[in-house]
Amino acid sequence: MIPVTGATVTVGVIGDPVRHSLxxxxxxxxxxxxxxxxxxxxxxxxxxxxxxxVDAMRVLGIRGLSVTMPHKEAVLAAADxxxxxAEALAAANCLINDDxxxxxxxxxxxxxxxxxxxxxxxxxxxxxxxVLGAGGAARSVIEALGRAGAADVVVVNRTEARAExxxxxxxxxxxxxxxxxxxxxxxxxxxxxxxxxxxxxxxPVGSFTASQTVVDLIYRPLSTPWLTAAxxxxxxxxxxxxxLLHQAAIQLELWTGINAPIDAMRDSVADAIG
Length: 274
Ligand code: NAP
Hints:
The protein contains 10 helices and 12 strands. It is an alpha/beta fold. The protein has 2 domains: about 10-105 and about 245-274, Rossmann fold (3-Layer(aba) Sandwich); about 110-240, NAD(P)-binding Rossmann-like Domain (Rossmann fold), CATH 3.40.50.720. The mean pLDDT is about 95. The site of NADP nicotinamide-adenine-dinucleotide phosphate (NAP) has 23 residues, from α6 and α9.
């Protein structure tokens, strides 16, 4: 680890709560592996103070921030520029400071797509995908799947009006459907919070096949009954660590312009959450 001096570059994560965030763990592991003189810190920022945190970036010369709840929408309005993903989603999870000009990005969906390719050897281009959920995580995934060339993106959600709005993010390939679509899908993604209790499942667990890729975005716990059932059916199954890892890797690349040291980052998550 390079000693912290007056020249050390500062990045961080803002949120409320934020102490549980794995962003500093991931980004500091990357800086160490790369020999980059930068450190990431967690900054607790109260609801409503997101725009003030954007101003603080300019005043303090903070190079980049990861952004978590409840600031993802508010920081967008306070930024000077906006990447296409953040604009489509009306939410940002990453900010970059270029000499006082702040650009808002959203790396969540691209993180999921990259994790499918890198961690799971699955290309969503041309695939039929079922996404369960229509909240923030689902919206970012649906938008990225549309850009990645998925052939069909079926959104299944408890609240149908939210499903309609989320499906539109995939463009012409997005549509609302039901859990019946799972059996025909190439890729099935749980982007609901159902399963975090370690007991419940977001869809019937008997619908998986051995030819499918199944992703549960949940990573606490590391496995869910739903993912266990997918593995039992012979599916190519992956938990939410992959998306967590690769959205952070894309953030690091935006801040530094250097390819992320993905093995070091993966090891740091494994040490932190098992
Ligand atoms: P969110 O915005 O609050 O959305 C929650 C979603 O879950 C909504 O679609 C909601 O449906 C659905 N839901 C909640 N309880 C339900 C229930 N009892 N039955 C049916 N549907 C239910 O949350 P989020 O930020 O999108 O997070 C969703 C999940 O993704 C969480 O498990 C989170 O840990 C995970 N996540 C993972 C990563 C990663 O990097 N791996 C990143 C972000 C989030 P309604 O619309 O009907 O309310």
